[in-house]
Write a structure and sequence with these properties.
- The complex is a heterotrimer of chains A (368), B (195) and C (151).
- Helices cover 24% and strands 29% of the residues of chain A.
- With 368 residues, chain A is α/β, with parallel strands linked by helices.
- Chain A has 3 domains: 92 residues, Ubiquitin-like (UB roll) (Roll); 101 residues, Translation factors (Elongation Factor Tu (Ef-tu), domain 3, Beta Barrel); 124 residues, 3-Layer(aba) Sandwich (Rossmann fold), CATH 3.40.50.80.
- Chain A has a 6-stranded antiparallel sheet. Chain A has a 6-stranded parallel sheet with strand order 15-14-13-12-16-17, with helices on both faces.
- The longest helix of chain A is centred in the first third of the chain and has 29 residues.
- The termini of chain A are far apart.
- In chain B, α7 crosses α8.
- Chain B starts with a helix and ends in a 9-residue tail after the last helix.
- Chain B has 195 residues and is an all-alpha fold.
- The radius of gyration of chain B is 17 Å and the shape is globular.
- The longest helix of chain B has 33 residues.
- In chain C, 36% of the residues lie in helices and 21% in strands.
- Chain C has 5 helices and 4 strands.
- The longest helix of chain C is centred in the middle third of the chain and has 15 residues.
- The chains are: A alpha/beta (368), B mainly alpha (195), C alpha+beta (151).
Chain lengths: 368, 195, 151
């Protein structure tokens, strides 16, 4: 057994591997080093980032949070933005999310675009207001058998600046069988003036990842991560009459809007239609009814479609749409604010337009 | 062997095509040949890898393996060189053509286990080529592979809308076509014989 | 049936905790292709195709929007209860698009068959004949679905 020969041969093998590995490391250092890149945002603001990362993560590191529901994996399409220069060619992973018009207008997915050189982008101005917050659960209330109201104290940053009607993304951690942390959107149900605390109304989704965690695991005092505010659902500053239509957890943005208007003072005629099945689905009824004393002309219309006999329900029954005419005195001068599923929004919009409300005065916050 | 490197180069493309004559390098050939564009991209990457690795492996064989008398380790060493080189190719492709990088996906690193590439290095050893001959042989074989995959991609594109019996769809039809192409290329064999 | 590499990715997405809390496979030991194959044996004995079934589910769903998050009786025989939630659900199958979160409960007033589905299931059934694995909360038994929506 010539041990010297064996050792020499092993050393030669190791030497060859070592040389090749060094070559690869050097190549990576040279070719994957994109240096510093400047991202020009809306022609107004410039940030300098280390090249190589995706547009989404590079901006997030500069505290600019482009909305994303899938954490940058390219599966939700929420991070759409316009890249006018420097984004490279459109990748096959992006194409399914855009139609021909959007592609021609330079729409890209921020999570798929890699920042390799100076790049020019356009994003909605509201994004600059989006921040990542550390919060703590201050209170959890049971509103119905499947709806909880959760109030969070904001720790850092201490204050949030939002319009009534906007929503935030709450992050749920890995737990039980759930192997990934996800973020989910919930409307803010507290008033904007209460800047260091927000309340969310969270309805349990069957098989839902985040809502199951909130309902079964979240405890008072627990720390959470919240990003926001997002959304363009808010009350327009006019004197037109208002119709609100929102059931289930859709009450959240309406509650925020009503509290906000109560604080600022509002003389507009307002009606809120809340459709539900039985009394078990009603919540905060007395609270919303109390706004009748605050506003000169506010009516709350809780309408049950199938009240149980022992509910002793004395209010309106059936579906909500037949009651709309009761609230309309001047359709041309009425705004509608709807919150719910796309199907509901489409059906209600059609009905309101038939009653004379102009299409451009119907605003909605769609669940999808 | 006394063949001119230039002749070896042309022979490797036509009369002694590594894919159509030796039937090496079939897996990525069958999988990627759906589209002409990605076939061209993969073929070019393979050409780049075969040319470079044949040259490097010649140097490693004659300057390290033979003097150190570790010929029995040649398979491992050749594969290590090929693997490292494919890594380098990946880094280069990702840098200069992200679209190609994404459309090739898993097939770029799979070039490492493309038996055509190891086969070319081993043929170079068996047939005892000189350095220039090896480069000609490696480059020609790579181009021959590129030619074969482009041809199959073109034919498959044309067949897309045509009726193919269920049992023959996919790999079945591709292999039939490859066999017929191999027969066609045998028509070149009178020009020069290198193996 | 052995799963191809693309199918393995789909099978992984169906496991608990990835897209939904408990996944789409329940406690079924079969992979999703086998589940589809077994269920299709039953569906092929019906006089309606997967397309017909999905269209019928879509029809009942759309009629229920009028009731808005409540319940309504469609065509005098089908009680449809529709509950919607905020959020988007992705399909484990590639390039399928985004789906709203909602539960649609249909009770056939004549034969009292009751079935629950979500918008995702209309896509599962129409495009793949996938009724979810046994033991999954939203598993739909093909015969019960057929009797509930067509009788």
């Amino acid at each position: 057994m010539n041990y010297q020969k064996i050792i020499t041969e092993i050393l030669i093998l190791a030497g060859i591997s070592g040389v090749l590995a060094t070559l690869i490391v050097v190549a990576k250092a040279i070719l994957q080093n994109y240096g510093e890149c400047v991202i020009d945002i809306n022609g107004k603001r410039k940030v300098t980032v280390k090249g190589g990362g995706s547009l989404l993560t590079s901006l997030a590191e500069e505290n600019i949070f482009v909305p994303s529901a899938c954490g940058g994996k390219g599966s939700c399409g929420a991070c759409k933005c316009v890249v006018t220069d420097g984004g490279g060619p459109v990748l096959p992973t992006e194409k399914p999310f855009f139609d021909a018009k959007e592609l021609a207008a330079n729409y890209r997915l921020a999570c798929q675009v890699k920042v390799k050189n100076d790049i020019k982008i356009e994003i909605p101005e509201e994004i600059f207001n989006i921040r990542k917050f550390n919060g703590k659960v201050a209170k959890i209330e049971d509103f119905t058998y499947d709806i909880k109201g959760v109030t969070f104290d904001l720790i850092s940053p201490k204050e949030i600046d939002f319009k009534a009607g906007q929503y935030v993304q709450l992050r749920s951690p890995k737990y039980g069988k759930v192997r990934e942390s996800v973020t989910r959107a919930y409307s803010i149900s507290s008033k904007p003036s209460l800047q260091n605390q927000i309340q969310l109304i969270i309805r349990r989704v069957p098989e839902g990842i985040c809502t199951t965690w909130v309902h079964d695991f979240l405890k008072e005092g627990q720390e959470v991560e919240i990003t926001g505010p997002y959304g363009d659902f808010f009350i327009r500053d006019t004197q037109a009459d208002i119709i609100f239509v929102a059931g289930g957890s859709g009450k959240a943005p309406i509650k925020s809007m009503l509290e906000d208007l109560a604080e600022k003072g509002c003389n507009r005629k307002m009606s809120y239609f809340f459709g539900a099945k039985t009394t078990k689905d009603l919540y905060l009824t007395k609270y919303i009814e109390s706004f009748c004393d605050v506003f000169p002309d506010f009516t709350y219309y809780p309408i049950l479609s199938h009240p149980e006999p022992d509910d002793n329900w004395q209010g309106r029954t059936g579906w909500i749409m037949p009651y709309f005419p009761d609230a309309l005195r001047d359709p041309k001068n009425t705004e509608a604010y709807l919150c719910g599923s796309p199907g509901m929004i489409a059906a209600v919009t059609k009905n309101l337009m038939e009653l004379g409300i102009p299409e451009d005065k119907i605003y909605y916050d769609s669940f999808v | 062997m006394e063949i001119s490197p230039w002749i070896l180069f042309w022979a490797s493309i036509f009369t002694s095509n590594i894919l159509l004559t030796n039937f090496l390098g079939m897996c990525s050939y069958l999988s990627v040949s759906r589209e002409v564009e990605s076939s061209f991209g993969l073929g070019t990457a393979v050409f780049f890898v075969t040319t470079a690795t044949t040259a490097i492996n010649w140097a490693v064989y004659h300057l390290i393996i033979v003097p150190a008398d570790i010929v029995y380790l040649q398979y491992i060493i050749f594969i290590i060189v090929i693997a490292a080189f494919v890594q380098l190719t990946e880094i280069i492709v990702e840098r200069f053509s992200p679209v190609l990088y994404y459309s090739l996906g898993i097939f770029l690193p799979l070039i490492t286990v493309n038996c055509a590439i190891l086969g070319i290095s081993l043929f170079m050893v068996i047939r005892d080529y000189s350095f220039i001959q090896s480069v000609g042989f490696g480059a020609g074989s790579g181009l021959g592979w590129l030619l074969a995959i482009m041809l199959l991609a073109g034919i498959r594109t044309r067949l897309k809308e045509k009726f193919i019996p269920t049992g023959l769809q996919g790999a079945g039809m591709s292999l039939l076509i490859t066999g017929i192409m191999a027969l066609a290329f045998m028509g070149f064999s009178g020009i020069v014989n290198v193996q | 049936m052995k799963l191809s590499p693309t199918d393995k990715i789909i099978q992984d997405k169906m496991k608990p905790g990835i897209l939904t809390a408990n996944g789409f496979l329940g406690n079924d030991k079969r992979n999703f292709r086998d589940i589809i194959a077994d269920d299709m044996k039953i569906v092929n004995s019906f006089d309606k195709s997967l397309e017909d079934i999905a269209n019928r589910m879509q029809y009942l769903m759309e009629k229920s929007f009028l009731s808005y998050d409540s319940s309504i009786v469609v065509d005098k025989n089908y009680e449809v209860e529709y509950n919607s939630y905020r959020g988007v659900l992705l399909s484990p199958f590639p390039n399928a698009g985004r789906f709203g979160k909602a539960t649609i409960k249909v009770t056939n007033l004549k034969n009292h068959m009751c079935v629950v589905w979500t918008p995702l299931h209309v896509h599962f059934i129409r495009d793949f004949g996938f009724f979810e694995g046994k033991g999954s909360k939203f598993r739909i038994e093909p015969e019960i679905l057929y009797k509930a929506i067509f009788d």
